[in-house]
């Protein structure tokens, strides 16, 4: 009886394409939630009866209805081109470097056993840091587009030019870099938890069904979001235009954003927008991991088929010998 050979590990680019494809599909499907959570996170709570030109949203549904009333349905998709570009580049870079650093770790240790939770988090953090350095300008421009009113809204190039001219020059495109580097713990927690939960809930199972991958992705992302929400809010505050109370003066760091929020809204203000943030993260991560596992399965099937075809061709090319 022939023994089925274990499929060779996928190349880093294959995992990167799988991850970025799933991320783009997932984010496109739930993009209105991205707009809503960003608007909720940058707004400053107003006292009852206060007169302000800035819209104020009481809840996720209130934000949706007010955005549609002001801009129509297309208002829920403001900045989507830049956002999907950022999602594709960030996730491609993340999955590529995550695969590379994981492979380097196994080679250096000369072991095949799964790494510990601490090591898994560290590997994810390194990959996330490299990815952020490369892709944060797109995130800055997208956040600006998402928080602009209908009359202020510009394209990707014009928004980027506005950031460069109005703030710190070209370095303005890297606003929030420190917060972003701290936030690499979010994908690190997400994928570290994903690997841990996979081992606990589905021990020894090499291939997950789409439903199982969705469940693991949703659970791991929800956990990571709850832990890092204050930093997420601070990062969005740094990358958006300053609130009216700042009179056009940008924040200098994420600690300053947190202090401003606590002063005006209390500690709970650091968790504003967490509802749509978790819902968006749950759906995105679930769809992403489900799509990624599906794509990886297809790549492995193609890999095995190619290997079998080459083996068959080689066998046919061997001449028969006679005694």
TrEMBL record:
It is found in: Mitochondrion inner membrane. It is a multi-pass membrane protein. Gene3D superfamilies: Mitochondrial carrier domain. InterPro entries: MCP, MCP_dom_sf, MCP_transmembrane, Mito/Peroxisomal_Carrier. GO terms for cellular component: mitochondrial inner membrane. Its main location: mitochondrion. Keywords: Membrane, Mitochondrion, Mitochondrion inner membrane, Repeat, Transmembrane, Transmembrane helix, Transport. Solcar repeats lie at residues 11-104, 115-200, 208-298. The chain crosses the membrane at residues 12-31, 76-98, 118-141. Signal peptide: none annotated. SUPFAM superfamilies: Mitochondrial carrier. GO terms for molecular function: ADP transmembrane transporter activity. Pfam families: Mito_carr. Belongs to the mitochondrial carrier (TC 2.A.29) family. This is Mitochondrial thiamine pyrophosphate carrier 1. It comes from Monosporascus ibericus.
């Amino acid at each position: 009886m022939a023994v089925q050979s274990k499929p060779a590990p996928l190349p880093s680019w294959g995992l990167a394409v799988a991850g970025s494809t799933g991320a783009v599909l997932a984010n496109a499907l739930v993009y209105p939630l991205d707009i809503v959570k960003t608007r909720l996170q940058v707004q400053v709570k107003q006292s009852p009866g206060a007169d302000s030109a800035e819209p104020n949203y009481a809840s996720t549904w209130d934000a949706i209805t007010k955005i549609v009333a002001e801009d129509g349905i297309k208002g829920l998709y403001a900045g989507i081109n830049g956002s999907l570009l950022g999602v594709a580049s960030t996730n491609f870079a993340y999955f590529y470097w995550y695969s590379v650093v994981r492979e380097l770790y196994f080679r250096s240790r000369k072991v095949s056993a799964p790494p510990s939770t601490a090591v898994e988090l560290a590997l994810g953090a390194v990959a996330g840091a490299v990815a952020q350095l490369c892709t944060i300008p797109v995130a800055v421009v997208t956040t600006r587009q998402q928080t602009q009113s209908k009359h202020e809204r510009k394209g990707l190039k014009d928004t980027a030019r506005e950031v460069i001219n109005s703030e710190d020059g070209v370095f303005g495109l890297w606003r929030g870099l420190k917060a972003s580097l701290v936030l690499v713990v979010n994908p690190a927690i997400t994928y570290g938890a994903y690997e841990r939960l996979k081992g606990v809930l589905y021990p020894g199972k090499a291939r997950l069904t789409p439903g199982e991958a969705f469940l693991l992705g949703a659970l791991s992302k929800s956990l990571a979001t709850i832990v890092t929400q204050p930093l997420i809010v601070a990062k969005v505050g740094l990358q958006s235009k300053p609130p009216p109370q700042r009179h056009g003066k940008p924040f200098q760091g994420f600690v300053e954003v947190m202090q401003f929020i606590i002063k005006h809204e209390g500690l709970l203000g650091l968790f504003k927008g967490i509802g749509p943030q978790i819902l968006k993260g749950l759906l995105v991560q679930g769809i992403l991991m489900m799509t990624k596992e599906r794509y990886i399965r297809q790549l492995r099937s193609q890999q095995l088929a190619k290997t079998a075809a080459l083996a068959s061709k080689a066998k046919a090319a061997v001449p028969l010998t006679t005694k």
